[in-house]
Amino acid sequence: MKPFLLLFLLPIFAFAQQPRQVLVLAERGGLHEGFTSAGLQWLEGQQDSLNFRLTVLSSAQHIQKGELLKYRLILMLNHPPYAWSPDAKNDMQRYIDRGKGGFIGFHHASLLGEFDGFPMWNWFSDFLGKIRYRNYIAEKADGTVQVEDTTHPVMQGAPATFVVAEDEWYIYDTNPRPNVHVLAHVDECSYTIPTDIKMGDHPVIWTNPHKKARNVYFQFGHSRSLFDNPAFLTLFRNAIRWTLNDK
Question: 230-243 vs 33-50: helix axis angle to the nearest 10?
Answer without folding.
Answer: 60
